[in-house]
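ARCHIVE CARD
CATEGORY: sequence design from structure
SOURCE FIELD: tokenized fold
FIELD CONTENT:
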């Protein structure tokens, strides 16, 4: 009897000793079901992100606008009001831009040809949306002075010229579109002002055309535009000009609004200003 009682007590002791870990297991299991929540990233591959006035990007963008003027002595707060500043995010265009620069580097291009620069277009908001979403295409410009607009694209090196030229042509300017560009190998040419003359085709082994003439404050707005313009193009592996040269990347958008006319000796004076309101949209063809 004593042996049976002892065996029974041992069995109970073993059961109680094994039941404690089971309790611990029940307490631990809920923790195993816990997962660290993932940070949700923006799913869109094409979008605009706001630049706040206290951000580094905002300061850089507006410093760039100030530096890329023809008339650097002009007061920036008389003709134009600036609105919201936004960065462009387009995964495909960014990849194409990076790939283009890598190809240029691998082909032995000079470091100078790989440097990033900035160019500008002053456009209606609807045209801006089309460009930052899909990239700027050939056949968008009416300019012909540096090359055939059917085979290349135009933009300006000076933001004040971009604004004044578009406004002088009665284009409803609602935004400045800022591009990062690679000039690459530049061919300097004499702008052709003869409207009856056939426009030049893109030059093989070059990346853009520029005027031999530097823009001057004494020139008319039209002549300033001709001297500030850059004609970009790119040849495919089949030696044909492509529709969207990859060396031009939409970088930022700044909304603008024209305040009023101010003329000095027959020339439109350059000026920019800041504002925090939006402007109406307009659908239509791009005219540069």
């Amino acid at each position: 009897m004593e042996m049976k009682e002892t065996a029974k007590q041992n069995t109970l002791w073993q059961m109680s000793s094994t039941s404690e870990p089971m309790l611990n297991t029940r307490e631990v299991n809920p923790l195993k079901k816990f997962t660290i929540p993932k940070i949700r990233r923006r799913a869109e591959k094409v979008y605009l992100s706001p630049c706040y006035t206290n951000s580094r990007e905002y300061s850089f963008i507006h410093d760039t606008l100030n530096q890329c003027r023809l008339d650097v002595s002009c007061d920036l707060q008389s003709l134009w009001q600036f609105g919201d500043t936004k960065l462009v995010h387009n995964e495909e265009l960014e990849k194409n831009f990076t790939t283009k620069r890598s190809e240029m580097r691998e082909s032995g291009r000079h470091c100078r040809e790989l440097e990033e620069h900035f160019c500008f277009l002053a456009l209606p908001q609807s045209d801006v949306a089309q460009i930052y979403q899909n990239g700027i295409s050939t056949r968008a410009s009416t300019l012909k002075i540096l090359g055939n607009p059917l085979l290349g694209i135009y933009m300006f090196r000076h933001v004040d010229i971009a604004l004044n030229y578009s406004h002088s042509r009665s284009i409803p300017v609602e935004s400045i579109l800022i591009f990062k560009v690679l000039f690459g190998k530049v061919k300097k040419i004499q702008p052709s002002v003869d409207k009856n003359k056939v426009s030049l085709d893109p030059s093989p082994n070059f990346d853009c055309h520029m005027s031999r003439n530097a823009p001057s404050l004494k020139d008319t707005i039209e002549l300033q535009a001709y001297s500030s313009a850059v004609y970009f193009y790119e040849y495919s592996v089949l030696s044909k000009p492509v529709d969207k040269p990859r060396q031009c990347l939409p970088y930022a958008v700044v909304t603008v609004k024209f305040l009023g006319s101010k003329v000095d000796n027959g020339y439109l004076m350059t000026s920019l200003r800041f504002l925090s309101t939006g402007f109406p949209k307009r659908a239509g063809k791009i005219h540069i």
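CARD ANNOTATION: The radius of gyration is 31 Å. The chain is about 30% helix and 20% strand.
SHELF: design records, drawer C
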